[in-house]
Design a protein that fits this description.
Shape: globular
CATH class of the largest domain: Alpha Beta
Bound molecules: flavin-adenine dinucleotide
Helix content: 25-40%
CATH topology of the largest domain: FAD/NAD(P)-binding domain
Radius of gyration: 22 Å
Distance between the termini: 69 Å
Number of strands: 19
Structural class: alpha/beta
């Protein structure tokens, strides 16, 4: 493919910025990524990515997308100790909205997922981007993009040092706190509409070392529900330790001490898991994080938008993190960017915004319905969210003991299968029959 751009600058060297740089390196003579944070030369937490201290589940689809951007990534991660997760009941304990899925039977179509920590994944990707010949990562903050009123386009970036760097394309990958809406305002463009759900989530995380042999699982998730507004995610990472994240939804505080984490584990995890955790050793310091609002900035809806800049990653859409989909959706945005560039048509930003809206919509809808109907969140709700949430709850109830339904859900939740595919009438019938049978059995034994 020819080089369509001379120089692109990317603001932010987290997962979004790195993926965008990878795609642009194929069509730009030069790509410069600016990052205001220090970038460690090993897997390590960064101050500007505070979420990295909390569990990050990489969906199976995300692993596939990252691998297609960076071939060899998954093998290298495994060589560095990243656990592989077979979708089998002995590897994973997965509870969502008060239901524990797929534990009764092996799922038919097993798929493989990977469990890198957030710092490990970012570092593996960063070192690959650094190795790309025409990409440079510079640790310096960007004050704002430069805008030429006469041309009606963004022309580069102004660095915190005061230097202006010309570029024919700028990527805003500055995360949830992006200032692009304010810059648009300043340049005389409308701000994007924001779709929001007030999820009121608070995270508390602690590392544990659990003696070998006590747990076969590598992922343990007990999601929150209306009745039980706190949850736990435990991931076994490449350093041989468990990251244990507890969270509260709808402004309910999660545990604040190790003793409270252990008590919560006793309440909501299988007995062998909480017993193993009690035998574990807490390591390091506790980390806290608040995530008040899921936010989708609707750039796809704008009638006017300047040329020369594209928003990317969490700067476009940031999902309730307890669903574990943000990194995967960022990787999917990178696939969209590649497809839109390869089509060779003009108006990159609006076409990318539309493509990203198409891939975002079903995932946003699923999480919004889950949050508003089942997780006590507040925000704009459609009349049909509650009944759909109720059906979903029935479906998850049946999926506890029906592997076909569990598999249907897990493949979509992992974003392997499209969420545009709603359950077929056969699956709905199967759900009803399954729940009826359980209800009758309960009645008979009462
Ligand atoms: C608590 C929490 C838990 C999460 N858990 C999961 C999970 O389990 N699974 C999952 O898939 N996703 C999860 N996510 C989402 C995931 O972290 C993000 O989707 C992912 O980090 C991609 O973000 P990004 O690169 O767009 O932005 P960020 O990671 O926020 O990075 C933005 C970068 O831009 C830099 N920057 C900002 N402004 C400037 C500037 N002016 N100049 C230069 N640099 C700048 C910052 O320093 C930072 O490095 C979670 C998020 C949170 C908050």
């Amino acid at each position: 493919m020819g080089r369509s751009y001379k120089h692109a600058t990317v603001i932010g060297a987290s997962l979004g910025g790195l993926c965008a740089a990878r795609v642009l390196s194929d069509v730009c003579e030069r790509v410069t990524v600016y990052e205001r944070d220090e970038l460690p030369d090993r897997p390590a937490n960064r101050n500007a990515v505070p979420q990295g201290r909390h569990v990050h589940l990489l969906m199976a689809r995300g692993a596939q997308e990252f691998e297609s951007l960076f071939p060899g990534l998954l093998d290298d991660m495994v060589a560095d100790g990243v656990p592989i997760l077979e979708n089998r009941p002995d590897c994973i304990h997965f509870g969502a909205a008060g239901h524990v899925l797929g534990t009764a039977h092996r799922l038919q179509d097993e798929f493989t997922a990977y469990v890198p920590s957030r710092p490990q994944l970012e570092w593996q990707i960063r070192r690959r981007v650094i190795a790309i010949e025409n990409v440079e990562i510079i640790c310096e903050g960007v004050t704002e993009p430069t805008y030429d009123t006469a041309l009606g386009r963004v022309t580069g970036v102004l660095l915190d040092s005061g230097d202006a760097v010309p570029a024919d394309l700028v990527v805003d990958a500055t995360g949830r706190g992006t200032r692009l809406p304010a810059w648009l305002d300043k340049w005389g463009y409308p701000r994007p509409r924001e779709d929001t759900v007030d999820v009121g989530i608070a995270y508390t995380s602690h590392q544990f070392h659990i003696p070998e042999g006590l747990l076969a699982e590598k992922v343990v998730v007990a999601g929150a529900s209306r009745a039980q507004p706190v949850g736990i995610g435990m991931l076994f990472y490449e350093d041989g330790n468990w990251n244990v994240t507890t969270f509260g939804i709808a402004k309910v505080e999660p545990p604040q001490t190790v003793a409270q984490i252990l008590d919560l584990a006793d309440d909501i995890l299988p007995a062998h898991v909480s017993a193993a955790l009690r035998r574990g050793t807490p390591l390091g310091e506790m980390a806290f994080h608040k995530y008040p609002t899921s936010r989708w900035r609707r750039y796809d809806d704008l009638e006017r938008f300047p040329a020369g800049i594209i928003p990317f990653g969490d700067a476009v859409v940031s999902f309730n993190p307890t669903f574990g989909q943000g990194m995967t959706m960022t990787a999917i945005q990178a696939a969209n960017l590649r497809a839109v560039i390869e089509s060779g048509e003009p108006d990159l930003a609006p076409r990318l915004a539309k493509a990203t809206a198409k891939t975002t919509w079903p995932v946003w809808l699923m999480t919004a319905i889950g949050d508003l109907a089942l997780h006590n969140a507040t925000g704009e709700s459609k009349w049909w969210y509650k009944p759909v949430g109720g059906l979903f709850d029935q479906f998850l109830g049946a999926a506890e003991t029906d592997p076909v339904l569990a598999e249907w859900f897990l493949r979509r939740f992992s974003l392997l299968d499209s969420l545009y595919m709603v359950p077929s009438p056969r699956l709905v019938g199967r759900t009803i029959r399954h729940n009826m049978k359980l209800w009758l059995a309960e009645k008979r034994s009462a």
